[in-house]
Fold this sequence. Notes:
This protein is α+β, with helices and mostly antiparallel strands. The protein has seven helices and 17 strands.
Amino acid sequence: MSKVKTLGQFIIEKQNDFPFAKGELSRLLRDIGIAAKIVHREVNKAGLADILGEAGETNIQGESVKKLDVFANEQFIAALSVGGECCAIASEENEDIILVDNEQSKNAKYVVAMDPLDGSSNIDVNVSVGTIFSIYRRISLSGPGTLEDFMQRGTEQVAAGYIIYGSSTMLVYTTGKGVNGFTLDPSIGEFCLSHPNMQTPKSGKTYSMNEGNYVHFPDGVKKYIKYCQEEDKPTKRPYSSRYIGSAVADIHRNLITGGIYIYPVTASSPSGKLRLLYECNPLAFIIEQAGGKATDGYRRIMELETKTLHQRTPFYAGSADMVDTACEFMSRFSK
Length: 335
């Protein structure tokens, strides 16, 4: 029987990769893991408790806020605030940054950006949802964090990850030295290393996008969809269309089996729909560390300048060869 390695043990082992951190980053990842366990518990009993449905509010994006959204947001904010390793938090659910102004956090080195519950439209129908997080070293020198601390390119991330709450709950993260996945064992209450050194195939057989918006897609995306649907044995086409509607779930599947995820601009979302800071940058970091690529159709996602907290961007991510081909279609057919 092989020895089980927990998330905590793995983080401690890898702590020497970051001599500047002195344990703070390890403790911050631990705090995120604790909050993930609490959210996992609530997600798994959601059908038995009064946390399904809408909370009667909308977030800064103008989207309806679900009760479980509110719960997840509160749990991650609480864990990050109490831990003392984070001086400010940016969340999809909050218009402004959340300052962690307490004695433990006044000299904290990090800020965290997060989508506490991605794919919330799936909550009421028992489909996988997830949490996305991104960690940056602060720019400000001390005290509560500032907005400037978050206005950094994705290349400046020190860690990023996601938690997927599905048939099992997994935490996948990177610190820039590969990608590792941990599955929650409810019997011992620990995330255990299950997917070491994750690598995505260079190509795959799956494309993921909301084809219901086809008429509003750029010409390059329309042409690429037709390319995916054509029969061609050397390239193993046609590809299968698989779209869950939860970015974490779609990205997770494609990361393991190979594929491409596309959320382009549309008439209703001329700048794209996904948020750069706390959705696209962390997912791009993970995908690149697993050997894939992530772009806005033309430029590398992690090199885009972050100008506003809730900035949106188109997102093309997944197996490197498939992303390259999609970008070629964008360059040839879209203005």
